[in-house]
Design a protein that fits this description.
It contains 11 helices and 10 strands.
Length: 302
């Protein structure tokens, strides 16, 4: 091996070593930054602050979210709560359970619902559990009503020559299903169920928003309103956003310049390390996707 070749090979080895050490240094710096950010986030939660949570997308019976709200109501460092809502609605039970959790917190601490692009049906039901409702002038809200959806394949089965024979204990048992057209009697029974749920929803709106009879009837027809119209009808208190919410809460609790700290339920990690290393994260996402996107055979929805 010539001298020039030997010098070149040694230079390559030195370059590889430097590159390896540089990569290790970058990884160490990255983890030090993550550790610092994680400790900073946890420190924020241990001093007096205004908590902020977000409710996005279709509403389901979210046990972890409701547990988080209950925990915030008991946390002495949480002086108030801002709930950002951007949801078209969802299941009745899901909206009811979150409404109850937020109502319980609102009895102990000031709270504000800040409506995003959409806060309709179940999204609006959750909003009325807070002390104040703030929306943008073009937020879509309202849609106070209830629907029941039941897909039916009976016509398709008839076309392809498939009969589904059913034995049942009574006419109303499983009267809404994929394979049979419901009888008029069954439809009437289920309509009564829808009306009962609707009256419950309407009653909560009347109680929490103190609407006149005229406005209550107007907003209870299932219509959607802009934030501007919603304010005129009494569905929201103020046109604005998070800044207005913070101003209201600071006046309410008599403390200014409190930090605003994001809280998330267990399904969303608040720790950078948990986000990277939490066990079973991909499988959990898969299970959530499959369970929440499946066909609803019988659902009462907002």
């Amino acid at each position: 091996m010539s001298l020039e070749t030997e010098v070149f090979e040694q230079a390559k080895k030195r370059a590889r070593r430097k590159g390896f050490l540089f990569a290790i240094a970058l990884v160490l710096i990255f983890f030090v930054i993550l550790l610092f950010l994680n400790r900073y986030i946890e420190y924020e939660k241990k001093v007096p602050h205004i908590a902020r949570i977000k409710i996005d997308g279709p509403i389901i019976d979210d046990i972890k979210l409701n547990r988080l709200i209950y925990d915030l109501s008991l946390n002495p460092n949480v002086k108030a709560l801002i709930v950002h809502i951007n949801s078209p609605g969802g299941s009745v039970v899901g909206a009811e359970s979150t409404y109850m959790a937020l109502s319980q917190l609102s009895k102990q601490k000031p709270s504000v619902s800040v409506l995003g692009e959409t806060a309709t049906s179940g999204g609006y039901l959750i909003a009325i559990a807070a002390d104040k409702i703030i929306s943008r002038s073009n937020t879509l809200t309202g849609s106070i009503g209830v629907i029941l959806q039941h897909p039916n394949l009976s016509k398709l089965l008839k076309k392809i020559g498939i009969d589904v024979n059913t034995l049942r204990s009574s006419e109303l048992k499983a009267s809404l299903n994929l394979f049979e057209k419901p009888t008029p009697n069954a439809l009437e029974e289920h309509k009564q169920l829808i009306n009962e749920t609707f009256l419950w929803f309407k009653g909560l709106v009347a109680e929490k928003r103190k609407l006149s009879n005229v406005n209550l009837e107007k907003v209870s027809q299932g219509g959607i309103f802009s934030g501007r119209v919603a304010k005129k009808l009494g569905l929201v208190d103020l046109i604005g956003g998070e800044r207005e919410a913070v101003e209201y809460l600071e006046k309410k609790i008599g403390i200014s310049e409190l930090p605003l700290v994001d809280w998330v339920s267990d399904k969303e990690s608040s720790s950078f390390f948990d986000f990277i290393f939490r066990e079973g994260d991909i499988s959990s996402l898969g299970k959530s996707f499959l369970s929440n996107s499946g066909l609803r055979l019988y659902s009462i929805l907002f």
